[in-house]
Design goal:
Elements: H1 2-17, H2 21-30, H3 35-39, H4 48-57, H5 66-72, H6 76-89, H7 109-115, H8 128-143, H9 146-154, H10 161-170, H11 174-183, H12 187-198, H13 208-215, H14 222-235, H15 237-240, H16 256-266, H17 271-281, H18 289-307, H19 315-319, H20 327-342, H21 348-352, H22 361-370, H23 374-384, H24 388-401, H25 407-416, H26 426-435, H27 442-448, H28 459-499, E1 522-524, E2 530-532, H29 536-540
Antiparallel strand pairs: 1-2
Length: 541
């Protein structure tokens, strides 16, 4: 069998040296020829020690024309065939094990290939995984096979970093070199290289590659992300913010407070956009009050800065509805109002003190409403903004949330108790009472209205009040009748149950244990069966 195998190897070797690389390497794989012997066919591919091991253990005849061999393997098809061969070999660990005793010299060199120290220099290594993957990278470069190179480096591999670094630097394939560093967890070396390339003039100039690399790093490499993102944030702030807008769970994401401080330091203009990502777009929305307060502060700062060139108070300021201003001011006020109304996590009491007393009235009204100060909020709509319709819409929303709320009474109180210098609006109060008679407490409303109001002016109010009173009385009467009927039915059932009887004879037995009832205590079931009193619990189980 050994002689036949050796002959097949020689025939396959003949095919190789005659240029049929793909078929020969395919036969080598089928014959389970030890990979070092195959790699030795390529001059200057294996390191010194591995080449010596291959020469000692190989049963293939050496080629008589080494110059011709060197010339043949310079062809691209030889390297292309090697790429396919090594891609198969690295996925079959059985091919990397020591050959049988009749196929080696018994010196244990191949066994050392499996047990070799991965930290030793590449020239001295016999580690098969390192040799295979490093030679595969070299073959990909020589064959110009970028797809196979990308597959190798984008997954877990055993490439010798220093050797592959020399190969890739020689051909200036820095993209693959960065991938090599990433797959080997040498992130600082990768980022140093990208930093140098970013300031160059080649195809990897700029910070796009640095940003893409940083986006792939998680909390374990937070220090590197903060260090190497500074230059990107300063040179290309909008694009660099993507480094921190990666959706990750709490275990792997960067600390959000640290990121916020970093962005504020390096690119203050991006703080608002980062907070919007955390609170409005992230899959894991931040619920800490700190971040919600920060976003309100950012919106508020932008609005106040833009309003410095506009009248800060008075009728001119209140005449324009919030968000209706042109340009960035209107857009930011829309965001501010929407966020104040939708967020449930900011500290309304803390933020209220940061808003001006003579401006941004609608925002103040939202904060007052969040604090439950409905009368103060309604006063802004009625007396400052002069918008009774919005005040009633405010009451409508609160009423839908809580029908027991006295928010309409609060609005009535605002109408009849104006601030100093203004007259009470009895007409608005009367209209409000008549329009929302069903939602206003009658006693409280009558106490607030002016004594001079005529009964005829409260026709709708009294009509609804009387109808409501009659309806309540009818409802109470119906409930009372239903309760009496239910009580009567229950009493009848009780009397019926008490009237049931059963004669116990000496032949009656327990339905549970089967023994005679005799003179023992017993229980009568709904189906008229008799059981011992002590057997009732067993029946329930």
């Amino acid at each position: 069998v050994s002689t036949q195998s050796t002959g097949q190897r020689k025939d396959t070797q003949y095919l190789f040296y005659n240029g049929d690389y793909e078929r020969s390497l395919s036969f080598f794989a089928e014959l389970r020829v030890f990979p070092l012997s195959v790699l030795a066919l390529y001059p200057h591919l294996l390191p010194r020690r591995a080449r010596q091991c291959a020469e000692r253990n190989s049963k293939m005849a050496p080629n008589s024309n080494s110059a011709a061999a060197k010339e043949l393997v310079r062809r691209g098809e030889a390297w292309a065939a090697l790429v396919g061969y090594l891609s198969v070999v690295r996925g079959e660990p059985v091919m990397l094990r020591m050959p049988d005793d009749d196929d080696n010299n018994g010196d244990g060199a191949t066994q050392k290939a499996v047990e070799s120290d991965e930290t030793e220099p590449f020239e001295d290594t016999l580690d098969m995984a390192r040799l295979i993957d490093t030679c595969l990278l070299r073959a990909c470069i020589e064959a110009n096979n970028s797809e196979a190179l990308d597959r190798l480096l984008s997954a877990s591999n055993a490439c010798d970093v220093d050797e592959c670094e020399r190969i890739l630097q020689r051909v200036e394939n820095y993209g693959a070199l960065v991938q090599l560093y990433y797959s080997s967890a040498l992130h600082r070396r990768a980022l140093e290289l990208l930093s140098k390339l970013a300031h160059g003039r080649g195809k990897m100039a700029g910070f796009a590659h640095t940003i893409d690399y940083l986006r792939r790093l998680d909390v374990a490499h937070a220090a590197l992300v903060f260090q190497y993102s500074k230059a990107a944030l300063q040179a290309a702030p909008s694009a660099a913010l993507a480094v921190f807008c990666v959706d990750r769970d709490e275990r792997t994401r960067l600390p959000r407070r640290d990121v916020l401080a970093h962005v504020r330091q390096c690119a203050p203009a991006l703080v608002q956009e980062y907070l919007e990502f955390l609170l409005l777009r992230s899959q894991w929305v931040e619920t800490s009050a700190h971040f919600h307060n920060e976003l309100v502060d950012e919106y508020l700062g932008t609005v106040l800065a833009l309003r410095r060139n506009q009248p800060p108070s008075g009728a001119s300021a209140a005449a324009v509805r919030a968000g209706a201003e042109p340009g960035l001011l209107g857009a930011t006020r829309q965001k501010l109002l929407a966020f104040l109304e939708s967020s449930a996590y900011y500290d309304a009491e803390l933020l209220l003190g940061r808003f001006p007393l003579d401006d941004l009235y609608e925002e103040r009204a939202v904060l007052l409403a969040r604090l439950g100060q409905h009368e103060a909020a309604l006063s802004i709509y009625v007396h400052t903004l002069r918008d009774q319709r919005r005040a009633e819409a405010y009451c409508e929303r609160r009423w839908r949330d809580d029908a027991a709320s006295d928010v309409y009474v609060a609005l009535l109180r605002v109408c009849v108790r104006p601030p100093p210098g203004e007259a009470r609006d009895d007409a608005a109060a009367l209209a409000l009472v008549n329009r929302y008679a069903a939602r206003v407490d009658a006693a409280a409303a009558l106490a607030l209205l002016d004594d001079g109001v005529r009964v005829a002016q409260l026709g709708e109010f009294f009509h609804h009040a009387l109808c409501t009173r009659v309806a309540e009385q009818r409802h109470a009467a119906v409930v009372h009748s239903l309760q009496r009927a239910a009580n009567r039915h229950a009493r009848q059932r009780l009397l019926g149950e008490r009237a049931r009887s059963r004669r116990i004879t000496r032949l009656d037995s327990c339905h549970v244990c089967g023994k005679r009832i005799g003179a023992a205590a017993f229980a009568l079931l709904q189906n008229n069966n008799v059981v011992h009193y002590m057997c009732v619990n067993r029946l329930n189980r």
